């Protein structure tokens, strides 16, 4: 690798140094602190210790990891199921309507995350209209709650991530040649078959991006399970926060974060290798 | 054969689904009742209550200070990054690009946790400064993304022309490149500002005691189930601000604006 020339160095250095300092070094710090002993008072001790890494063998963790992956997968699938037809419909509109619809999708994307989750917490509240309605229709029992279960976590996660899924799907659908669909139909394919055998493969790249932008942040989800979930829906992010803020055990929080980082980075590196192989 | 109506119906349902909870929140902020379970008449009492809360005003002040500093710094760093990534194609830039991408894909909790561990291991006091540093780190990447998109359709002939007419490199940059790119850079800055004002998870990890921002204060109020109607009022005001910001940024990023 040749050393870059002066103008290149000058324009690259500010952001590069910042990112090395505050992204690269911190990520390595996670892995380093995982091998430090915890102080009873909440600090990080001197020397090295395997305690925090060994604590990853906690018998409750396999279920925690599985639950995190499962809730993430359910949310991702739901986003795709709603996002695909929505993006398709948007791409088929006239340009003027297309940009109006795009704006309507972007506004919730810019709206404060905590507020959106809070709105749902109130809607699903035990004394709220929805719970009253469901109770009077006997959809739920007298003592059943709409909050505190997996369905609530998936529903609210779906709500918060759907705009993120629609944007890449729409970007891909906009470039799709809809003549191909008409051709498939002219050749006798049913609408649904044409949709899945022509449209879906045609926007494959958008689908992959949508999958990643929902699934990866979902692995680190913290706010939604904390606000609308319960003890049975605890996810990896909640456990990290608990180790950090309640137990004040930074090395164990770091070990869990390291496990999450590997879980997140593995698919990214696999994809990079695939890409390099394809190129 | 007629195309199916299912996609259009889905799109309409999705949009209704997006706005129903937000609308519910706004309507409820004018509800006299303390609890959302029944309508007790129109009232603006929760908005009046808002101004009496000094902690909310202080948190708003913190949020604005942090977002202003973070958006200015990330506009500078992000624009420089976008220029380098656009202009040079080397192995070195590939590493640079990878680093710029990481904050976009890293889950918030990992970013917050890793920065907290960095600050703790270097003995840095958690404060508004550490929050600002964290915000610059993720805003930088978004600004770089927006400006890079702008550079793709940037006409470098204008810069060449200025140089041919005798402008120095610096003059050409300040008088031609920068003004032409300004809408893109501002749009990036605006995005950075909203991302910073909105952030809860990362802020929660790197904030010290007593340095609450609006989202962390709202969050702790929600967790304590305290003054929920006041949060409705506050949320509605924040929604209005968001709509205004989106409107401005749409004007800036419209392709015809160049």
Short key terms for the protein model shown above:
heterodimer, A: 279 residues, mainly alpha, MetI-like fold, 13 helices, B: 258 residues, 11 helices, 78% helix, 0% strand
Structure description:
The complex is a heterodimer of chains A (279) and B (258). By secondary structure, chain A is mainly alpha-helical. Chain A has 13 helices and no strands. Chain A is globular, with a radius of gyration of 23 Å. Chain B has 258 residues and is mainly alpha-helical. In chain B, helix 2 (45-52) packs across helix 11 (228-253), helix 4 crosses helix 6 and helix 8 runs antiparallel to helix 11. At the A-B interface, helix 1, helix 3, helix 4, helix 5 and helix 7 of A face helix 1, helix 3, helix 4, helix 5 and helix 6 of B.
Secondary structure layout plus pairing:
The complex is a heterodimer of chains A (279) and B (258).
Chain A: H1 6-33, H2 51-54, H3 61-91, H4 95-110, H5 113-123, H6 129-136, H7 150-175, H8 179-186, H9 191-202, H10 204-219, H11 223-228, H12 236-246, H13 250-278
Helix pairs in contact in A: 1-13, 3-7, 3-10, 4-7, 7-10, 8-9, 12-13
Chain B: H1 6-29, H2 45-52, H3 54-87, H4 91-105, H5 108-121, H6 128-152, H7 157-164, H8 169-198, H9 201-206, H10 214-223, H11 228-253
Helix pairs in contact in B: 1-11, 2-11, 3-6, 3-8, 3-10, 4-6, 6-8, 7-8, 8-11
